[in-house]
Target: Sulfatase N-terminal domain-containing protein
Amino acid sequence: MIISRQFSFRPFILALLIVSTFSSKALHLFQHATSLPQSRLILFFPTFFIQEAVLWTVACFVLYRLSGNKCLSVIGNVVTGIISALTFVLAASQIGFYMVTGSEVRWDAATSVGNDPEGRKLMLSGLKSFLAASTLLLFLSWLCTPGLSTILNHWLSALFPIRSTDKADEEALLATAKGAFRANSIIQFWTAGAVIITSFLWLVRPQVPYSHISGAIPFTFFGALGPKSASLQVAGDFDFPLQKLIGEEYWEAPNGHFKGWAPGTKPMSMNANSRPEWASGHLPAGFQRWNESKKEKSPNHDMRKNETSTIRYNPVHDPLRITNLDQNVVEPLAQALKNHEIPINHIVFVMMESARKDIFPFQAGSSLHQQILSSHESADAETIQKLNSTLSRLTPVAEKLTGEQSGFSSDGDEPQTVWSDGVKNGMGGINIHGLLTGSSLSFKSAIINHCGTGPLPVDFMDEVHEEIYQPCIMQILDLFNQRKGPLPQDQTKESSEFHDRNWTSIFLQSITGLFDDQNILNEQMGFHKALYKEQIENISAPYYHKDMEEINYFGYAERETYPYLRQIIDETIANGQRLFLSHFTSTTHHPWATPSKFHKEKYFADGLMGKHEDMNNYLNSVRYVDTWLGDILQVLDDTGISNETLVVLVGDHGQAFHEDSPVSGTYENGHISNFRIPLVFRHPLLPRIQITANATSMSLVPTLLDLLVQTKSLNEEDSDIAVDLMNEYEGQSLIRPYQAMYNGRQAWNFGIINAGGTMLSVGSAAVPYRLILPLSSDFEFVFSNLDTDPDEKSSLRAWSIDELSSRVENEHGDKAVQWVFDAEQVGRWWVEERKRLWNHH
Ligand SMILES: *[C@@H]1O[C@H](CO)[C@@H](O)[C@H](O)[C@H]1NC(C)=O
Ligand SMILES: *[C@@H]1O[C@H](CO)[C@@H](O)[C@H](O)[C@H]1NC(C)=O
Ligand SMILES: *[C@@H]1O[C@H](CO)[C@@H](O)[C@H](O)[C@H]1NC(C)=O
Ligand SMILES: *[C@@H]1O[C@H](CO)[C@@H](O)[C@H](O)[C@H]1NC(C)=O
Ligand SMILES: *[C@@H]1O[C@H](CO)[C@@H](O)[C@H](O)[C@H]1NC(C)=O
Ligand SMILES: *[C@@H]1O[C@H](CO)[C@@H](O)[C@H](O)[C@H]1NC(C)=O
Ligand SMILES: *[C@@H]1O[C@H](CO)[C@@H](O)[C@H](O)[C@H]1NC(C)=O
Model:
């Protein structure tokens, strides 16, 4: 059949509107179908289309019934055309976003990303799927144009018959009047019936989740642009839910550096007695809470009234805090510390973009390995063997850093170019297993990693407008600098003990520093100096070269920072300083592009263009970054500082792919593969220790301080300060036995899910359960048991906590249900408490 027809404006506009809204709703329903009881889904089905039905009817009316008034008709056509075009763009974006990530667009988040120039580049990376979706929608609209407008017009004429004034028409009408009247009344009858039934269903259905499910573009879009709807929680003081665990019988008195524990007492500001001796004189930024008590004592500060009512964190009043600093350092470390010196003069802190624990290192027999093998189902043994040997060379540096073997019965033909580690057998440092990130949004994670602070559970980086409620490492190092003053007369920069030298803190990355206000955050966290793409691509930069290759929308590959890394280390040594260098890797970010000269492997059978394309690209970028980590360690060897440098390697968050979960990426996706991250404290003179702790990255800062103290890498005064500060953080030290439970209290683990304010991951070191807690009514509750389902292949989902708990009870028993109720309450309390501690209003 050949379709040839004239293009007509009004029917096409109508068809475009209907096809766009309908496809958008169909996709929306499909994404939520599994979390709803089927009977309810069928029962309330008609109510899901109320907004669309109204929109279509009004559009049809405006397009076809305003023709009496020429001016009104033109305006109506134009307005309908604009709304239809907007709806089409929104629907295409929604479908395109789904094709890339498997999840739902949120228009409020999209508009904030769109306001950020670097964010727009991120959005453009989805252009291909947007265009594909638009083409599809346009084609469908074109196909449906004649049919849809005929049907709708017919229906509309039946409902609202037109009184024609035309003579000829009148005659024609008279002839068919009887039949038409009958047909019209049937349509009217059914329409009225449908409207009544649907309205009734609409009145009786529950708000959550059906309001969210019924939302239709463009209404949801305009809704998101409008003022933010109030969140589920009420503002104000939130009492801690598990009151019987914080009763007076559990309180503890201060003891040495331990500040005591007495939650429930009125949070008071620190009095002069509890203020440590070091907290006098001028304090660097980050130490505001030790500054305040002084202010209160001087009466002439009335004008600062508002400031004194600022909320501060106080470990004594933290109902969740469990300390393990009273425990002994783990045995192999204690032994080594007795036997030889382990100097930490410098610290190189590498935060690794999207680093999953299961590829650090990649291991034979892992679930990922199984998936790769099964994509090669029909291959012969020789191909598989070759594949195995290719895979055994994926992360050789990570193997050396962690001391974990890849487990391949390897042929051992490691490429000559791989960094070779000179450490003795049984040495190399501490490798942590079981760690989860505290946030799947990179820069919130950076705050946890550098400051030991729980970030704000709100969308995006509002933290840059507030005070960080704990001192960051860089600020602690500044405090050390301040206390020391100039070198004693009899010492020079070169001859001084490193303990008496000043620290310098530098941040280095090869991508833009302007995305999400990262540059502001870094300044706020206390870095003395930061180098980003913007500095290294400056034509007058010292290592600028013409053929610098941008590999993704954020900037360059890490290798571009190599000469700067060398320069920073050389200068630090020459200046007689101690280095704290923080480096953020980036190639492992979407779209996982590698430099053009980098050889790309095909790990999956259909790796380069097929359904495993993303994962395959990711694995290649992982291999690239592994090589780069080798380069960093080589620089430490070459400059002769490796034996006195602690290298901390930590993932900012994991990364879920289609191979792991139905929704890929970190955005509004609570899947466990977004949370498992590596953490390594590498030092050639530290014994090789494998530690398992079901903790989050909140433990990083206290552990780092603990290591500096235990290795006697600080002078006496600094060491005292560090021991004191360790007792101020919420996390436990990972070089001491982790306390999963204490006096009935669990060591809770929280994870803020990208973009921050919509869902929270709640877990605990004491149980294998995990709850994804929705922070707005647009999301579901999700429960999993990591003992029986470590990869979260069959999580339970529900729209209310009661519905979820009955499912949990059926499958996991009473203990799990009780935990779910506790977790929900503790999670909600934690969210409000973070906002309070950040003084976020
Ligand atoms: C501490 O207080 C002093 C004087 O009020 C002020 O100059 C300084 O900036 C404050 N320091 C911090 C870290 O807030
Ligand atoms: C104190 O807070 C009030 C209201 O919150 C505000 O109007 C006033 O300007 C503040 N005063 C100072 C000194 O910041
Ligand atoms: C490849 O590695 C897997 C996991 O170690 C092993 O089971 C399999 O036998 C290996 N295949 C070949 C051909 O070496
Ligand atoms: C260390 O830094 C402090 C200020 O931060 C300065 O007063 C002192 O002179 C410095 N000491 C050395 C040895 O550079
Ligand atoms: C490049 O660096 C020079 C010298 O540091 C500076 O003056 C100039 O503003 C920079 N240019 C850009 C585009 O940032
Ligand atoms: C590091 O220390 C070990 C053990 O003391 C020693 O064998 C090695 O040569 C040192 N490496 C460097 C680069 O100084
Ligand atoms: C951590 O959690 C896992 C999964 O629930 C459990 O199997 C393991 O025993 C826990 N490890 C520790 C050290 O508590």
